[in-house]
Amino acid sequence: MESINLIILVAAALLLVSIFTSLISFRIGAPLLLIFLGVGLAAGEDGIGGIDFDNTPAAFLIGSVALAIILFESGFDTRFSSYRAAAWPALTLATAGVVATTALVGTAARYALGLPWQEALLVGAIVSSTDAAAVFFLLRVGGITLRDRVRSTLEIESGTNDPMSIFLTIALVELIAAGGAESPWDLLLMFATQIGGGVLFGLAGGWLLILAINRIRLEQGLYPVVSLSLALFIFAVAGTLGGSGFLAVYVAGLIAGNAKLRGAQSLRRFHNGLTWLSQIVMFVMLGLLATPSQFPELLAPAALLALVLILVARPLAVWLCLAPFRFTANETTFIAWVGLRGAVSILLAIVPTLFGLPDGQTYFNIAFLIVLMSLLVQGWTIRPLAHWLKLIVPPRIGPVDRVELELPGQADYELVAYTIREHSPVVTGHRLPRWARPSLIIRDGQVQTVHTVRHLQAGDLVYLFTAPSRVALLDRLFGETRELAEDDRQFFGDLSLKADITVGALAELYGLPLSVRNAKLTLADLFRQEFRDSVEVGDRLRMGSVELIARDMDEGRLLTVGLALEPATPTAGPRIPVIPRPGDLLHALEAARSRFYFRLWQRRQRRQARRAERRARRALKRSGGDRG
């Protein structure tokens, strides 16, 4: 009994230490997952805690369950609109990008560690996937507001590339364990079964989850338990029957999260808290599993592999995969840099040990060191890099809290809360519509009603009941600061225009040049024509002396367009891009070729001029001699 209490005490203490040390991350900007790993290392056998934990099967089991929970929540919080914006580039990175990274890092490991090709490629496969927990934390919790297409690409890639990395790792481990007896057809069949089975089980599981939550009447507190149980059930069934459980649980979360669920907000809160717990448990446990005293002998080759991964393999894979898509050089550079490695790589590094490979501990130590270096180098620099590349966009102001109400019948209402912003319309004199009157106002800690408050002020916290369809209107009324905020005006323009006005009307109103074939197009049609139906907020079009900016979108439709009277380009010009687009390279090569031939022509002209001058001198001398 005492040992059980001691285990519970140690586990609870580690959780509390991890949570409270996360305050350090928010204060100094350190990657939070690095803090969790550090707590595990400090508590391990070589740290001050002295905890001897080397149960790799238990670690893999706990880590797999934690990763399944994280991936389910990742899918649950990803909107279908993100897939409309970035499905193809993200899925290309999650498949071809993982293979390319495996090949490049494996080649480096072949010479840095002197391993046979199969084992070297295994090292590449282990560290080939970006970590969903690390990327989601940086983008959603870290306060980095990016353009939708860049953010969606990173989120979808990090949520979907784990199955590919897991497949490559397990296939290579089985190939090594079998002495190369596996045929390419067996591996191809295994891949099709894993991916196809994962998608099918995920679709069926998502439908089952929606049915269970919306059709079965339970106590309110049981719905989160049902969603968690079904998520783990889907994960286990898919894995047992040969599919990818990780892909299945992600797809199930994606399907369920985009459906109308009973108590959706409470489900999101539950899974968000559970994901935090899973991240802490997984990273602390993997830190406990490590033995830092073994790191020094592998530090040099691991550092070399980390440099190859960060500076060569990931950028080259991203450049190749995104070449067919419309990403700027700055965006490609940023996506290449946000290739953080995390718990998935360390978890996969346990697989060789589970299969009894002789160098299992070596794979684990190398993967652990690479993850540490990735979090240190990339995790610490993502926010400054996003600012330097000018990819940060103004955040959308929305409710600070939303509570879904369970009302009888078909009534669909929510309780929403807003903190009134300094330049919101209700503060600057905008009349408050009847349907938007708050039920409760908190000012200076005192509760007041709309009848006792004459005018709303900046800093007031207001609560009101509303239909979900009106939340977007309330965002503009209570939280919108875009009209007067200088940063927002630089990004979204000086004026706001409806997207259904015609190009001809705009040209006539502002005296702009007009192409006859575009005169009858609406501004929305003009953007669709230019960006091939993949318009997103922040896209820009030059029209004479002004610039048109995609401002507000709803389900892929352009609603309003900003007009910049003195155009600035906060996201356009490359900031000495590390990774230029293929088109830019072609233009640069063409320009270099033109300059080369122009210089040849100049030299030829100068030589001809000098020859002509010499002939003229000789002719002049001869004519002078004849006269003499």
From TrEMBL:
Superkingdom per UniProt: Bacteria
Task: Give the UniProt keywords, A-Z.
Answer: Antiport, Cell membrane, Ion transport, Membrane, Transmembrane, Transmembrane helix, Transport
**Transmembrane stretches, start-end:** 6-26, 33-51, 57-76, 88-109, 121-143, 164-181, 187-210, 222-239, 273-292, 298-322, 334-357, 363-382
Q: Which InterPro entries match?
A: Cation/H_exchanger_TM, Na+/solute_symporter_sf, Transptr-assoc_dom
The record describes its membrane topology as: Multi-pass membrane protein
- Which positions fall inside the Transporter-associated domain? 488-567
Q: Where in the cell is it found?
A: Cell membrane
NCBIfam families associated with the record: PRK05326.1-1, PRK05326.1-2, PRK05326.1-3
Q: What is this protein called?
A: Potassium/proton antiporter
